[in-house]
Amino acid sequence: MEVKTVHLELESGLREWCQGESLDEDHVVLVLVPKGTEVAQIEETMETVKALGRVRVRGRMYNKKVDRLMVLCECRERVDPTKVPTDVQHVSTGISWPVIMSARSSATEGDAPESFEALFHTAPPTSSPESIIRAMGDVLTKMDKPSGENSSYRRLRMFSGTLPTPAGEETLEHWLEQARLMVEESDCSDKEKRRRLMECLRGPALAVIKAIRTAEADVSPSKCLDAIECAFDTAESGEDLYFKFRLMQQEKHEKLSDFLKRVEQSLTKVVRKDGIPTSRVDAARVEQLMRGAIHSDLMLVQLKLRERKQNPPNFLELLTEIRAEEEYAAARVKLSASVHRVKANNDMDSHQTDIQSLKAEIKELKSMVDAMKTKPLKPVDHDKESFPSHQSPKIESCENAEIVALKKQVQRLQKKVSSKTAKDYD
């Protein structure tokens, strides 16, 4: 009874919703979908019913009783209950979505679809192991929420094919890389992949895809990307790309790991254009790394790549080894710089000590010179002294010579201080 009551409430709500949105009940259906389902997935799934024609979502509302989203869908064709099923299956997961039609369109008013009744189905109360296992199976079956891969995705950046690349757009190489990753890794349908590609194209690029779809409506997403690459990329053959790959060289101050990444990007293009067989990718990568890494000879010797040419590592293994060697080399340089800085500081301290000592000696000598200049001469008593008068000039000349010697010593010490100070600044 509860199932039928809820179904009648949904039919009544559908009529009121149509009046509020000014929609024709004969061209509207209500579908119950899990929470988190994207609008694009709903429209794509409902358009699998050919009797509905083109379908567009006009509103969404959560219903607590059924724990689902009620989605109001407008159809191009008139809803015929004899042609429209009471439930549809999601294109990716295969989960059934109940479809509610208005009482005016449905010939069996109040009848609920089986998938709708399954939402209220509960296992009979029993404690046997078989019933518990059966109940667990029913619970797992009802856990039909789509994964994050199907419900959301990171939108690609815009690409128009205009040169130079306008602000806010991606270059062809980077855009193709992201687009191919989406096409290869996404679990959604080809139609959804085409929609994602076309929503980020404009200008000449969008015109190319429209021209292809005019000739082939169900063209695959991979062919769309091939057409974009053919229209806007260089017309070089696989042999031309392989020749450019063999001419690659490491730039000055470029890390070996960065050079390896450039080599890998070029090698990927060569493989895509059939310029080299896939079986020779690892060997070609190692050969070009040894050939073009002209600024990392020592690191190549440490990696021992020549001895490993018969069994070359793949890209990830090689990148890991190179990064480890680069970090080890950076640590050695840092340690060497630290040791040199400590030694320089010690030398600086010894120079400062010598300078302070010399300055102290200069100060002491200057004080001695000043003292001798200001020292009063003792009066000479000719009566008491028996020295002859001609010895007085000799005594005075000796004192002057001592002052001159002290001044010269002060000058020499000052020169030593100046030379040590100059060395410290150097």
From TrEMBL:
Extent of the signal sequence: none
Keywords: Coiled coil
Location of the Paraneoplastic antigen Ma-like C-terminal domain: 159-319
Coiled coil region boundaries: 341-423
Domain Paraneoplastic antigen Ma-like N-terminal: 14-100
Superkingdom as given in the UniProt entry: Eukaryota
Pfam family, one: PNMA_N
PANTHER family: PARANEOPLASTIC ANTIGEN, PARANEOPLASTIC ANTIGEN MA1 HOMOLOG-RELATED
Protein name: Paraneoplastic antigen Ma1 homolog
Species, as recorded: Austrofundulus limnaeus (Annual killifish)
